[in-house]
Specification:
The complex is a heterotrimer.
Chain A lengths: L7 H28 L4 H9 L18 H14 L1 H20 L2 H8 L9 E4 L15 E5 L2 E12 L6 E7 L9 E6 L7 E3 L13 E12 L10 H37 L1 E2 L2 E2 L4 H29 L5 H26 L1 H4 L5 H11 L6 H13 L3
Parallel strand pairs in A: 1-4
Antiparallel strand pairs in A: 2-3, 3-7, 4-5, 6-7, 8-9
Helix pairs in contact in A: 1-3, 3-4, 3-6, 4-6, 6-7, 6-8, 6-10, 7-8, 8-10, 8-11
Chain B lengths: L1 E6 L1 E3 L21 E3 L1 H16 L4 E8 L5 H9 L3 E6 L6 H14 L6 E5 L10 H9 L3 E11 L2 E7 L5 E7 L2 E5 L11 H7 L4 E5 L12 E7 L8 E4 L3 H17 L5
Parallel strand pairs in B: 1-4, 1-6, 4-5, 5-11, 6-10, 7-10
Antiparallel strand pairs in B: 2-3, 7-8, 8-9
Chain C lengths: L2 E6 L9 H8 L4 E7 L4 H9 L2 E8 L8 H15 L3 E5 L2 H13 L4 E5 L1 E3 L6 E6 L4 E7 L5 E5 L16 E6 L8 E6 L13 E5 L9 H11 L2 E4 L1 H5 L20 E5 L5 H7 L4 E6 L6 H4 L2 E4 L2 H15 L1
Parallel strand pairs in C: 1-2, 1-4, 2-3, 3-10, 4-9, 5-9, 12-13, 12-14, 14-15, 15-16
Antiparallel strand pairs in C: 6-7, 7-8
Helix pairs in contact in C: 3-4, 5-9
Classes of the chains: A alpha+beta, B alpha/beta, C alpha/beta.
Chain lengths: ~375, ~260, ~325
């Protein structure tokens, strides 16, 4: 039967990650949200303590975490600050295709340097004209001697302004849709033809660097192709089985943080002669928020557990991502509501969390796409 | 150098403390346990001393319950080399704890060159174990240490006393140093450190193994209760110049005798 | 009735005041007082008024400065010869360090920092706080005698009546023995103020301060009681104080034993930063200011008149 307890080691991991989140990230979250700057000191410290790149296998210098361990860490970092977590989590999103589908030489060449100093990676899938319709991407990959040549434009690329490594999904022929998609690694940010756009101004996750990236005849050595031409779509799907629960875990962390703020405020704020925690309207809201956070967490943990058992988790990964993201948006909105007028002011931390929550419903597969994935899985069984 | 650190596991500072049903102790069922905060400074100083003296080892020792060994594992994850746990579920008093720690250190087979402890445990706030332990081992001790420099086993220590003054001590190892906040900045346990900690040696003994029995109890507690409720706030009119001096005098008197904060 | 020794420390012309608090509670027992060094004559007669049968000045080489081992060795000898049931002291920096080592030399038990005690039938029973004061418990000592007790200063209060005793002054010769940890020098208290987040006492100014230069009166109050000065957001936004002094939601969160809020209304953002202060004093001309609902002691008055009076009154008693 299933054991809902974390192992004592997982409890220590959680405790340490939460300590880092509360002491290092939370006090600075508002400041970096307002300035929009990259909090390099905090990110580097997180890396030094082993909180980053959790997907790298031990044979290549990684720590050897299970998928569930990674979820615990991500939840804690998101509790600290969603923007900073997005920056750190994006490394795993980019490195996962290499860890899952690269050969040993590639893993050594690309992954190991990330365990030796704090490096930053970008995962390039979305384009200005192709978001949810990812299989219709238009960035092309063409053979030219012992290189591939990449042409196209990517949009909403996290870390683009700072990345040492770009993992690019591109196609040999857009007409082939998913069958034409390949995945290749660009590890030379000074290569000719690579143009990084201006930093986007966003509603939330403002300390996270997001830009357009344009490739004009960018030449990449053939040995950087992950798998074979045409393997890209399967690699992407395998990656999403890991990364969707991870993003869902960040929604859980953010929602827990918003809930904790709301509970504390409700005990302190007095209206009509008693703390608002004593009024039913607030009690009912808090109860719903708490149930939804715990339910989200359980979905994330099951989706991760399935992978650790070597089982397929595609359906659960979508359940977790859709549910956790949607519930996070509700919880964050309710948290602002509980704070009332003060919640609307940036003097208090909940308005930032509400702005941050919105993105989780959009990136890594929109809540609508997740539902289509789920329905497809269900109907394909009968 | 053989470096030892003595740690205690205590309730988290945010935990709500309530006396148990029969007033013999507090309710412990839903307590979150942490490493005593002052002991974190001790662990850090032990690790810094190890780093400055190659070939040294840090052994962390704890007397307490078996069900939670997190504090020891945190110390190992921070970088200690091995750990010793003396199992005890009772609420031992300071005398028994010091005697158990002494027994555990002696049983390790290593002679302690220096022992670091926190200056007090935030559960019972007795501030006795460091000095008792040093006395039992017949070594000098300095407590409330906020500055520590070491070279070749000779320590220069700054001890904080009343009025913010500092007594500067010189002492050669072996010695016991009880650490205060401000001595250093305790490092985080790194995640790889946490994963490696489970492979580090953890020796376990009973109280009897280290020569401690009920006959060693010296202090008995009973009648645990919550402190009296704070009296309702008092408000004094002092817009009229004629009453200002007496109002202020009264408030100062209350601060000293009722609130006892000055 | 028990035979009790009260260990004290000599100040410039007296002994530490906690000694008198302890003597008051020991009335009716056979009590001696001892200090390392010369107890001033004036102190001897004061101690006699409150019950000291004998006042011993312990003298010997290497005892001019405190050392854990020197004082412990000196006292062990003296106590051993005296046949005491109990040894008391105020829980000063020195006694907190000395008494555990000393009690260990007798294999005896010690009750630390009691806030009250009784000596019914010559047997000690005390009350002490645990868990940073969140809980109180009764404490008793068993096993070999003498038993050791330290008492928190200001907890008992000065004795309300005298209980005169003989007050014989006598010197006693003691040996410091081997001292392995010795004081090389003493660095006087630093003049820099503690950081707000560490401060035990905080004095804060609000919008009513009217100008930055007016914070001078808060500095004077702070100097009188060893406090750190803070400010509300209103004062900082108006330029009366730098942001580093701000206490509140977007400033620092503080938890001192005493927080004195001067001309601060007590907006919820400010309360968020100081609500866990042990004791809150508020000074404000508006009797309906929200801060008064949180203050333990509220003074409805003009801070420019009240603060200087408060400074003088505190200087008198500190």
């Amino acid at each position: 039967m299933v054991n809902f307890d974390l192992s004592s080691e997982q409890k220590e991991i959680k405790e340490m990650a939460m300590k880092f989140a509360k002491n290092e990230m939370m006090p600075k979250a508002g400041e970096f949200d307002e300035s929009g700057k990259m909090p390099m000191d905090i990110l580097t410290k997180a890396w030094e303590l082993g909180l980053v790149n959790t997907c790298i296998p031990p044979e290549f210098g990684g720590t050897g975490f299970t998928t569930l361990d990674s979820m615990i860490i991500t939840e804690a970092l998101a509790y600290g600050c969603l923007g900073m977590n997005t920056t750190l989590m994006a490394n795993d999103l980019a490195l996962l295709p290499i860890a899952l589908g690269g050969n040993n030489e590639q893993k050594k060449r690309f992954l190991t340097p990330f365990t030796e100093s704090y490096k930053i990676a970008s995962f390039c899938l979305t384009e200005p004209g192709n978001g949810s319709d990812a299989a219709g991407l238009k960035t092309t990959i063409k053979e030219d001697g012992d290189h591939y040549v990449i042409n196209g434009q990517k949009m909403w690329i996290t870390n683009a302004g700072y990345a040492d490594l770009f993992v690019i999904y591109c196609t040999t022929d857009p007409e082939l849709k998913h069958k034409g998609i390949s995945c290749i690694v660009l590890d030379d940010k000074n290569v000719a033809g690579l143009e990084i756009g201006a930093k986007e101004k966003k509603m939330g996750h403002r300390s996270s660097d997001t830009r357009a990236v344009t490739f004009t005849n960018v030449r990449i050595p053939k040995e950087n192709l992950i798998g074979n031409l045409g393997d890209g779509w399967n690699l992407a799907k395998m990656t999403l089985d890991h990364s969707r629960p991870m993003v869902a875990a960040s929604a859980v962390g953010g929602a827990q943080c918003a809930l904790d703020h709301a509970v504390k405020y409700a005990k302190e704020r007095v209206q009509f002669n008693k703390p608002i925690a004593g009024h039913q309207a607030i009690q009912l809201m808090i109860a719903d928020m708490a149930m939804n956070v715990e339910a989200s967490r359980l979905l994330v943990h099951k989706a991760a557990w399935l992978l650790d058992q070597g089982k397929s988790n595609t359906e659960l990964a979508s359940y977790a991502k859709a549910f956790a993201a949607d519930k996070f948006m509700e919880v964050a909105t309710d948290a602002v509501q509980i704070f009332g007028g003060y919640g609307y002011s940036n003097e208090y931390p909940v308005e930032k969390i509400m702005r941050d929550a919105k993105l989780i419903q959009i990136y890594e597969g929109t809540s609508q796409i997740q539902r289509l994935v789920i329905a497809k899985e269900i109907f394909s069984r009968s | 150098m053989n470096i030892f650190v003595c740690i205690k596991q205590v309730p988290d500072t945010e935990t709500k403390i309530t006396p148990n049903g029969d007033g013999t102790y507090i309710e412990t069922s839903s307590i979150k346990w942490i490493m005593n905060p002052y002991d974190e400074f001790a662990v850090e100083q032990a690790l810094l001393t190890k780093q400055a003296n190659s070939g040294s080892t840090v052994t962390v020792v704890r007397v307490g319950g078996v069900k939670d060994t997190e504090a020891l594992r945190t110390a190992l994850a921070m970088g200690a080399d091995d750990a010793i746990l003396v199992e005890s579920d009772d609420n031992l008093d300071s005398f028994m704890t010091a005697k158990a720690l002494k027994g555990a250190i002696e049983k390790s087979g290593k002679t302690a060159d220096v022992i670091f402890t926190g200056k007090q445990a935030i559960d019972d706030d007795c501030l006795q174990v460091p000095q008792l332990l040093a006395g039992m081992l017949n070594i000098p001790s300095v407590s409330v240490v906020v500055g520590c420099e070491e070279a070749g086993g000779a320590f220069t220590l700054k001890r904080e006393v009343e009025g913010g003054a500092l007594e500067v001590y010189e002492v050669k190892s072996p010695a016991l140093i009880a650490c205060n906040k401000g001595l250093n900045t305790p490092r985080y346990a790194s995640l790889p450190g946490i994963m490696k900690a489970k492979r580090k040696p953890l020796a376990q003994h009973s109280l009897a193994d280290v020569g401690v029995s009920d006959a060693d109890r010296r202090v008995k507690y009973s009648n645990f209760q919550l402190p009296p409720e704070k009296p309702a706030g008092k408000k004094f009119e002092a817009m009229d110049e004629a009453v200002q001096a007496s109002v202020v005098a009264e408030v100062v008197g209350l601060l000293r005798n009722e609130a006892k904060v000055i | 009735m028990a035979k009790v020794l009260v260990f004290t420390e000599v100040t410039s012309d007296n002994v530490k005041s906690v000694t008198y608090e302890i003597l008051g509670k020991l009335a009716g027992n056979d009590v001696d007082v001892a200090a390392v060094g010369q107890v001033p004559a004036g102190a001897v007669s004061e101690l006699a008024k409150y019950g000291a049968a004998n006042v011993h000045s312990l003298k010997g080489d290497n005892l001019d400065k405190y050392s854990p081992e020197g004082y412990a060795n000196a006292l062990k000898e003296f106590i051993g010869n005296g046949g005491y049931d109990y040894v008391f002291a105020g829980s000063t920096s020195l006694a907190k360090d000395l008494f555990p080592r000393l009690s260990g030399m007798f294999d005896a038990g010690m009750a630390s920092e009691v806030t009250n005690f009784t000596m019914d039938g010559g047997t000690f029973a005390g009350t002490r706080p645990l868990f940073a004061g969140k809980c109180l418990a009764k404490v008793e000592i068993e096993g070999p005698k003498p038993h050791f007790v330290t008492v928190r200063p200001n907890a008992l209060g000065m004795p309300s009546s005298e209980s005169p005793a003989a007050g014989n002054a006598a010197d006693a010769s003691v040996a410091a023995g081997e001292i392995r940890a010795a004081i090389k020098e003493i660095i006087k208290g630093a003049s820099e103020k503690l950081d707000l987040t560490e401060a035990n006492i905080i004095v804060s100014g609000g919008r009513a301060m009217k100008e930055a230069s007016n914070f001078k009166i808060l500095d004077e109050l702070a100097d009188a009681i060893g406090a750190t000065v803070g400010a509300s957001r209103a004062a900082v936004d108006s330029g009366y104080a730098p942001h580093s002094m701000q206490v509140g939601q977007t400033g620092k969160t503080v938890a001192p034993s005493l927080y004195i809020a001067c001309g601060i209304s007590g907006a919820i953002q400010h309360l968020a930063g100081m609500r866990t202060s042990k004791c809150i004093v508020a000074i404000n001309t508006d009797p309906d200011a929200p801060i008064f609902t949180k203050a333990d002691y509220g003074i409805v008055g003009d801070l420019f008149q009240i603060v200087p009076i408060l400074t003088e009154e505190l200087k008198k008693i500190m």
